[in-house]
Design a protein that fits this description.
Structural class: alpha/beta
Number of strands: 7
Shape: globular
Low-confidence stretches: 1-5
Strand order of the largest sheet: 3-2-1-4-5-6-7
Number of helices: 6
Order of helices and strands: EHEHEHEHEHEHE
C-alpha cells in the first residue's frame, strides 16, 4: 500500500454507486480498498484490479457477519494502511406492502443498513487517521420530516435508514475528539438496480457530486445529514 497517498474504503463495491465510486477514485489516483460479499465473482472489480493493481485492494466482506468483519479487520492490520475516507455504501431495499409485512424483511434491512454500518465503523476506526471522514450512505426515505412516499412498500428500508441517522449523530459525538467527521449522505435517486430505470440521476453524475462534497467536508460538518451536493436535509 502506498502510504503517501490518500486511501478510501468503500463497502458494497461490486455494483451500482459503490462500483462507480471505486472507478472514480482510482482514476483520480487514490488508493482504494473495496469490499464485497464475493469480489472474485465481480467481473468489473477484477478488471479494475488488473488495470490498477498498485492502487486497488479487494476484500471479501459480509457486513452482516461478525466473523467476516473480524477477518476483514485482520487483513487491514496486515496491510498496514491509514484510511482517509470510509464510505459505508453496502445496503439493500426490499419493497413489502403494509398488510404483508414480515419480521424477516425488517430484520434483514436493519442488519444490512444499520447494524452492518455500525459494526464496520467500529472495526475500521483504529485504521482511520486524524481528520478522517466516515460517510454513512443514507436516503431521503430516512428523513422523518420529508416522510417520502409513505404509501409505498419501502417501510422497512425507510426505518433502517432513519436508524442510520441516529447512529450518525451519536458517532459524530463519540469521534469528535479524534477529529473524525461523520455524516449521513443521501446519494439521491440514482439509476441503479436499487433505484430503478426511472431515477433522475445517473451513476457518474451522482458519484461526481458526492466525491466533490466529501472532499470539502470539515469537522464543522460532523453529525449532519446532507445531499449529494452538500445541501442540508432535515432529520
Amino acid at each position: 500500500m502506498n502510504n503517501d497517498m490518500d486511501s478510501v474504503l468503500i463497502t458494497g463495491a461490486n455494483r451500482g454507486i459503490g462500483l462507480g465510486l471505486v472507478t472514480y477514485y482510482l482514476r483520480k489516483g487514490v488508493s482504494v480498498l473495496a469490499t464485497a460479499k464475493n469480489p472474485k465473482k465481480s467481473e468489473a472489480l477484477q478488471k479494475l484490479q488488473k488495470e490498477y493493481d498498485k492502487q486497488l485492494w479487494l476484500f471479501e466482506l459480509d457486513v452482516t457477519n461478525e466473523k467476516s468483519i473480524a477477518n476483514f479487520t485482520k487483513q487491514l492490520k496486515r496491510l498496514g494502511t491509514t484510511i482517509s475516507v470510509v464510505i459505508n455504501n453496502a445496503g439493500i431495499s426490499i419493497e413489502e406492502e403494509f398488510g404483508q409485512w414480515t419480521m424477516a424483511t425488517f430484520e434483514t434491512h436493519f442488519r444490512v443498513n444499520y447494524i452492518g454500518p455500525a459494526l464496520v465503523s467500529q472495526a475500521v476506526l483504529p485504521f482511520m487517521g486524524i481528520g478522517a471522514k466516515l460517510i454513512q450512505f443514507s436516503s431521503g426515505m430516512g428523513s422523518l420530516e420529508w416522510n417520502i412516499n409513505p404509501k409505498n412498500g419501502l417501510d422497512a428500508y425507510a426505518a433502517s435508514k432513519c436508524a442510520l441517522q441516529s447512529l450518525t449523530i451519536r458517532l459524530a459525538e463519540k469521534l469528535k475528539d479524534k477529529q473524525i467527521t461523520v455524516i449521513a449522505l443521501n446519494p439521491g435517486w440514482v439509476r441503479t438496480a436499487m433505484g430503478g430505470p426511472e431515477a433522475t440521476t445517473g451513476i457518474s453524475e451522482a458519484v461526481g457530486n458526492m466525491a466533490q462534497t466529501i472532499s470539502q467536508l470539515t469537522l464543522k460538518d460532523t453529525g449532519h445529514f446532507i445531499s449529494d451536493t452538500g445541501e442540508p436535509i432535515p432529520w
